[in-house]
Amino acid sequence: MQNYPVVSRSLRQDGEARFRRPRPPWPGGARCVILLTIDFDGPSHDVGQGFTPLGARSTGRYSARRGVPRHLDMLDRLGVKASFFVPGYDAECNPEAVREIIARGHEVGAHGYLHERTLFPPEEEERRLTLTHDILTDLMGRPPVGWRSPSGQKTYTTLRVLSGLGYRYDCSDKDFDAPYMLDIGDGRQPFVEVANNTFSLDDHPWYHYSMTPVSEVEEAWRREFDAIYADQGYFLLSVHPRCGWGSGTPSRTAAMESVLSYALSHEGVVALTCAELAEWVRANSEHFEEVRI
Ligand SMILES: [Zn+2]
Question: 126 CA to middle of ligand 1, Å?
């Protein structure tokens, strides 16, 4: 196994350990924020592993052909703006899909080039991060401000490169159930970590590992929302517009719509993109945990 330097981190204690922080304030005095994050994960997912995205490996092509259009229509019906995380290779293969996501008012963030699942030496990692950054910037006419690790991993280099490119938040870590400030020690303005739960609030484990029926996934996500609404008020759902283990198909998109509609029917619920929430956290940083890496 490669042994590249990985991120280590420490809570900034400010003189005393905080066992539990109160619910942070949300924009507009909302009781609960909901965020829908959609990882494009098209053929990059397969090409990155050395497979040709045809035959049994063709499920990623469903994203641009069916899943993304279906998700966009669903979001229009709900009046919700989502954050799409797009690998650079998929953006190159499907520029019209990325333009449509932008035209419909959603956020596009970066998600690797070939959905890399391994760590690279610093120079190669910077080359890949910059490559996707340039592809998305050219397509969108403005640079992305958010990034999600395809593998959930980061090196000591990752966030420093992203910060230098102007990114303002990361949406990869699983270590909290609220966003928090991230001091990466590069002297620039602090990052925001938009922490995510890629186990119970992600379609991949349910549909890939446990082959759970869609009705049970929908019920599980409703229960997650109920508990979160009663607690910290931070509900972030991650899905994929693929077929196979994704949520691009009609019944699974309908399940998403049902859960989101249910959440939005509650008093004091506001739907935000990750970029919108990250800016709120930066502007109200005194209420949020700070972590130094
Ligand atoms: Zn992904």
Answer: 19
Residue 94 CB partners (closer than 8 Å, separation 6+): 42, 63, 64
Task: Give the residue from 227, 211, 245, 242 showing the smallest Cα distance to 63.
Answer: 242
Cα(247) to centroid of ligand 1, in Å? 13
How far does residue 267's CA lie from ligand 1's centre (Å)?
Answer: 32
- The per-residue pLDDT for range 144-172, each reduced to its tens digit, is 999 999 989 888 889 999 999 999 999 99
CA of 61 to the centre of ligand 1 (A): 14
CA dihedral 147, 152, 157, 158 (to 10 degrees): -10
187 in Cβ contact with 202 (< 8 Å): no
Which of helix, strand or coil describes residue 201?
coil
Span from the CA of 286 to the centroid of ligand 1 (angstroms): 32
Provide the CATH number for the domain formed by 29-292 in this structure.
3.20.20.370
| Verdict on whether the full-model pTM lies above 0.90 | yes
Provide the β-strand partners of residue 290.
181
